[in-house]
Write a structure and sequence with these properties.
- There is one protein chain.
- This protein has 3 domains: 58 residues, Winged helix-like DNA-binding domain superfamily/Winged helix DNA-binding domain (Arc Repressor Mutant, subunit A, Orthogonal Bundle); 206 residues, Bira Bifunctional Protein, Domain 2 (BirA Bifunctional Protein, domain 2, 2-Layer Sandwich), CATH 3.30.930.10; 51 residues, SH3 type barrels (Roll).
- The chain contains 9 helices and 14 strands.
- The strands form 3 sheets. The chain has a 7-stranded mixed sheet, with helices on both faces. The chain has a 5-stranded antiparallel sheet with strand order 13-12-11-10-14, with no helix packed on it. A two-stranded antiparallel ribbon has the order 1-2.
- A hairpin with a 2-residue loop joins strand 8 and strand 9.
- It is an alpha+beta fold and 330 residues long.
- The chain binds biotin.
- The site of biotin has 20 residues, from helix 5, strand 5, strand 8 and strand 9.
């Protein structure tokens, strides 16, 4: 009901009186007043001018599920969109929902995380209300040990969303970073479990959207960035959220059709790691070599300096890569 009132306001170029709105949506004036209050609580800015009437002036920069879903048009991803004000980790929140039977594609966003986590037990820091923190429930026909495939496909999805909609030169730094000019703008964390119904995965994404340079912790300033820093202007988080879900939905379709070849081709094209010299650290031991390719399920294929070729699984290694991609041509 409140969204009928919202859409009626949105359709109008001129302010509307309460009675005209009530008539348009076939509600009583009291019901329209209640709907307006509920909309304002959700973050919509509805101006009431004594003579002219009511006007939708926009919304505060809050993540509003209705706005994210508006015009989304996805098959699976974003089938349900929820926004939490504060949660330890959206991945945990998504797991709770997944265990309770939430459908595939359910996306859980948070304005704030108190214990956001990254790969290899690291923390994920993000100030409240400026970035995107989200987790999506996935139930693909995969085994739990194929989570790499999801990390690769979703990193392609995130990078493409930023390229196509914001014209940013986003790249993928293996295994789970999205970078712009060599600085990390997003991280991906896929977790999988085998349940009675089959393998279930939670895809967690942290994307720095409107975080200012001063909000980046000092030790990360040289290596992290945000969309607003790169663009020199703030970006609508609602819009970026919608673009992300739409892009993730496309790779989800490729995955469900088994079109792994396309995912691998996109990864090679967008990767800043492909063909580069890298140092990999595994159980305290350093390996140096040049990246030959990626095996979607097994990991990075590297020609080591001592002449052998080895595959490195992302769960066991950390990687150092010279910041060549800052100057690397497109
Ligand atoms: C990494 O770069 O190591 C991955 C970072 C993933 C962070 C996101 S933020 C939303 C979701 N919830 C979490 O606790 N982690 C992921």
């Amino acid at each position: 009901m409140k969204y009928a009132v919202l859409e009626a306001l949105r359709r109008r170029d001129e302010p509307a009186s309460l009675s005209a709105l009530a008539e348009e949506v076939s509600l009583r004036e009291k019901e329209v007043r209640d709907a307006l209050e509920a909309l304002r609580r959700e973050g919509y800015v509805i101006e009431a001018q004594p003579d002219a009437g009511l006007r939708l002036a926009g919304w505060q920069d809050r993540l509003i599920p209705y706005e994210i879903r508006r015009g989304l048009g996805t098959r699976v991803i974003g089938s349900d969109v929820r926004v939490l004000e504060r949660t330890p980790s959206t991945n945990d929140a998504a797991w709770n929902e997944a265990l309770a039977g939430a459908p595939e594609g359910t996306a859980i966003f948070a304005e704030e995380q108190t214990a956001g986590r990254g790969r290899m037990g690291r923390r994920w820091h993000s100030p409240r209300g400026v970035n995107l923190l989200l987790s999506v429930i996935l139930r693909p026909k995969l085994e739990v040990n194929q989570s790499n495939l999801l990390t690769v496909a979703s990193s392609v999805g995130v990078a493409q969303a930023l390229r196509e909609n914001l014209h940013l030169q986003a790249r993928i730094r293996w295994p789970n970073d999205i970078t712009i000019k060599g600085r990390k703008v997003a991280g991906i964390l896929v977790e999988g479990r085998t349940l009675a119904t089959g393998a279930v995965f939670v895809l967690g994404i942290g994307l720095n959207v409107n975080m200012g340079a001063g909000e980046i912790p000092p030790d990360l300033r040289e290596i992290a960035t945000s969309l607003s820093i790169e663009l020199g202007r703030t970006v609508s988080r609602v819009e970026v959220a919608r673009w992300l879900l739409q892009s993730l939905d496309r790779w989800h379709r490729d995955l469900s059709f088994g079109d792994y070849g396309r995912i691998a081709r996109c990864w090679r094209r967008l990767s800043s790691t492909m063909g580069e010299r890298v140092t990999l650290i595994e159980s305290g031991r350093e390996f140096r070599g040049r990246v030959l390719d990626l095996s979607l399920e097994e990991g990075l294929i590297v020609r080591l300096d001592e002449g052998v070729t080895r595959i490195f699984h992302p769960s066991t290694v950390t990687m150092r890569q010279p910041q060549e991609e800052m100057t690397k041509p497109e």
